[in-house]
Amino acid sequence: MSTSKTRSSRNWLAHLWALSTGRFGLVVAGLVTATAIVSSFWMPFDPQNVDIAVRWSTPSWLHVFGTDGTGRDILSLIMAGSRTTVFVAVGAGVIATVLGLALAALGALTPRAIRETVAVFVDILIAFPVLLIAMMISAVWGGSLWVVIWAVGIGFGVNIARVTRPELRRVLHSDFVVAGRASGLTPAQNLVRHLLPNVAPVFIVQLSWAMAVAVLAEAGLSYLGFGAPVTEPSWGSLLSELQQYITVQPLVVIWPGLAITITVLGLNLLGDGIREATDPTLRRSARRRPAAELHEPEVVA
């Protein structure tokens, strides 16, 4: 069984890599993660080092992305900010996973009264946008990375619960789940062995989108002053600092904005690629499409 599982996971990853969206998403996610790891022990310059002599330097071999108005190296600031990005994305993903699966299980596997109560609770929470939740929490406890992580985790955990709950209800009535229940498996064992693996594709797609929203929310909240503190490097706070000089040095604003855009785009496309790689109906339609195009009759005027 372990061999078959390994083979199926390899086939799934191979299909994901064959897709242009999946390949782009994997490359972006890997590059951002690698940058965060490397920046923990090496950067070209100290990101907080101020050197007035080289302020507003244009891109060169010494300062690849140039410097800001205080002489700080832009590349080092972006590398340091990648640690914040990865930390927020992973932290929000963990919270969204735990909360989403817990609410989905309560809304699918419990008696009817509890199921309906959980469904109403989820519908109420899903009406509040993630950024609004983060700003309300920041107004009470102050701005920090943990505020962003908890706000995005709660917001997308509710989304995961809403999408995963009907899938759990559908799989719950499958023959293999009924057979597992008849063989003496407890509800928790049935959930781990049969239910969660069968809803994993839907869940993973939602999780990748949650991480993309976490990156965007952290950048947006830091830009507005509700996110990372001043002492914590962040792409959003860097963009906020540099945008006031856009008429003087427009090039320096491009780099943090480009980092945010590519990261969010890569995570969103990774979610689309995972959805296509794990959905057998989309695989079959993708295989049939070229053949249909080859036999498409020409229209003669």
UniProtKB/TrEMBL annotation:
Any one of the GO CC terms: plasma membrane
* UniProt entry keywords in alphabetical sequence: Cell membrane, Membrane, Transmembrane, Transmembrane helix, Transport
What is the name listed in the Swiss-Prot or TrEMBL entry for this protein? Peptide/nickel transport system permease protein
> Basic and acidic residues bias: where?
290-301
Give the source lineage, highest ranks first: Bacteria, Bacillati, Actinomycetota, Actinomycetes, Micrococcales
- Annotated membrane-spanning segments are 12-38, 86-106, 118-137, 143-161, 203-226, 246-270
The record, for CDD domains, names:
TM_PBP2
The segments labelled Disordered in the record are 281-301
Which species is this UniProt entry from? Microbacterium halimionae
Name the Gene Ontology biological process terms. Answer: transmembrane transport
Q: Which family does it belong to?
A: Belongs to the binding-protein-dependent transport system permease family.
Principal localization reads membrane
Question: Where would I find the ABC transmembrane type-1 domain in this sequence?
Answer: 82-271
Q: Where's it found, cell-wise?
A: Cell membrane
Top-level taxon in the UniProt lineage? Bacteria
Q: Does the keyword Membrane apply?
A: yes
Classify the protein's membrane topology as the record does: Multi-pass membrane protein
**SUPFAM superfamilies named in the record:** MetI-like (SSF161098)
Entry-linked Gene3D superfamilies: MetI-like
